[in-house]
Amino acid sequence: MLKPVSTDVEALKVLDERLRWLSAWTIHHANHVRDNADALKVGGHQASCASMTAIMAALYFHALGPNDRVAVKPHAGPVLHAIHYLLGSQSREALENFRGLGGAQSYPSRTKDKIPVDFSTGSVGLGVAITLFASLVQDYLTAHGWLDDKDRGRFVALIGDAELDEGNIYEAIIEGYKHDVRNLWWIIDYNRQSLDATSADRMFERFDEIFRSCGWRVVELRYGKKLQAALDGNKALKAWFEQLSNAELSALHYQGGAAWRARIDADLGKEGANFLKEHDDVALASLFTDLGGHCMETLVEAFDAARDDVPTLFIAWTIKGFGLPFAGHKDNHAGLMNPTQMAALRDSMGVREGHEWEPLEGVGDNARTGVEALLERSRIPREKRSRSFGKVAMPAIPAPAGEEQSTQAAFGRILLDLSKAGGELADRIVTTSPDVTVSTNLGAWVNQRGLFRRSDMPDIFAQAKITSAQKWSGGNKGQHVELGIAESNLFLMLAAAGLSGDLFSHRLFPIGTLYDPFIARGLDALNYACYQDARFLLVATPSGITLGPEGGAHQSINPPLIALGQPGLRHYEPAFADELAAMMEEAFRLIDDPAGESTYLRLSTRSIRQVERADHSWRDGALKGGYWLREPGDNAEAAIVAMGAIMPEALAAWEELREDIPGLGLLAVTSPDLLHRGWTAAQAARWGGERKPSHAEQLLSKLSRTAGLVTIADAAPASLSWLGGVLGQRVAPLGVEKFGQTGSLADLYATYRLDGDAITEAVAELLLPA
Ligand SMILES: Cc1ncc(C[n+]2csc(CCOP(=O)(O)OP(=O)(O)O)c2C)c(N)n1
Ligand SMILES: [Mg+2]
Fold it and tell me: Which atom of ligand 1 is nearest to the CA of 163?
């Protein structure tokens, strides 16, 4: 770790005030100064910003080194922009356009903001936890020899206290403890207010216990130097102060000096008299607002004292809206100063009207030199870090041999073959799974490549010569990160590993496996990963009612619809092993392509007979979302449109019907997601003058315009039924619309109408004259 730069606390205090002004002004400008054509609320959080300007000044202008990465509490985004504005790396134009198209984003965004943002935030709790997994990824890269010690850094999360109610934080620290994570600073802006009100008093002492028991050092910054000294010299006052509830404290902060006086007088009587005599109202208000999170000396000392790698939780006491007229008011979360209040703040800060945007406006000549020197010395990157793409050689991935296979088995086989063949891609794959490594068929890969542990973990069963198909030993060259059953952690791990090329300039190829229905359990974290453009391969298996006897609770219905609506994630659902091999090759390529994305493979445990291929012409279509498995006749009046594991039923129905219905086609859909995207993209391009039919249009235009489509998937029927809208063809949608139940495949397919009879009936109905 680098040593801290020498510090000028006075200059940091000036910067704290500058951040408070600039963040408040940026929000004010967007709400009250800039034209607002549609009269919609613009919003922003002046109180949440003011709460942590001192913390952020101490961090960015003193404590942070060039390799440290920070997740900033979403509603303190304007403070981060103000920091970069002072450093010269954010433009006035972007601040003037805060929350406008192309302007500084409402919440820090890695992809959309022009300043360096290490982690996007917005959905509270997730930005906190991703720092833990990013630290684990840093350790992984170091252990594998890709990251030098000099390039290692600390991972910092700036946290609103109400974020601590998000359960994903506790899931993460439990997992972190197992992996012995380090180099973390989590700093709580403990203003004891959430969005709705002041927060519950009783939880406070519990938080530090929870963290301590997960191996964290907890540092409480309750008092600033001035208040600490006053309370140390006055036991009665201290005892009185410490018994005030969160709500009482906040109310007193809001009411100010006279209220403090009245309350002390009422509660302490004679015991408080001398103290009150020594302080006028202004002094009282200033003294009691001197909490740890606003005291520069306290913050600098605390950060300097925590420079080892022990994960550290700082609980910095603050006042929400510190220094602003609504400080401490329970309703201040989205509160905005009115123009009169803003003018008063401007005057009190020595900012001249018309000079509001000047970075160091109001800073006197004496202080200016120190402040400028501090800005100059700040070691945080001014530019976005470069992203690593396109550097890894991609091998061709052959389809595993076998007349009968399931896509899940083929997935395990492909990884095993990749591992055995070796090479850069195989070395850069990191797999992870929330306690379903074996049941999602990662076992053979893990046997080959081992578990990742910072210190060696022997396989006790193997040492005892107990027969097992699965080796379970770990070491620092292992390539599988074992997770407990917490799907949110899986997605955060994929997000962090999927950003390795961005955070550390070393691309990893993360593969996460889980059961398809449990995607929903981590959905917001999945969305969060995609929102930041993390790149990974998600393999969900088993899926659908094809899981059979394992029952309804494990059968997934709607994930294809989730994928259809999820930007940044490409859904593929193969029926055959050769399709899967092509899709995995494509997924790896997409991970390493600047214009790529993540991929979701929906796989099945059902072993099915593989089709014979005359050539490779199917491959291109399969990667675009679909191909004719059985070519239709020209202008055919009907087609079966099928996806995934029920392909044998579709093929059998096609065989049965083809004599009666000449030209009947069978369209294998491999990605409703890609077909839909292509359809809308072609439409948008047409408005721009480009006339190229989408892949779905090309496929379906082989049929007559009046053709009927029977769509069938082991999923919600809406996954495919929309295809009728592409050319206006009629559709009979088959799929799963009710929760599944246990049963043999034949029984379940008959019950849920996913069998040949259902297809035959549906085709017949479509072909009946209206
Ligand atoms: C997952 C999620 N739920 C709800 C919200 C809406 N929300 C934004 S901030 C906030 C309260 C934040 O309070 P706290 O974390 O204490 O931050 P403060 O503004 O007090 O610093 C809520 C509920 C959100 N952003 N994310
Ligand atoms: Mg709060």
Answer: 15
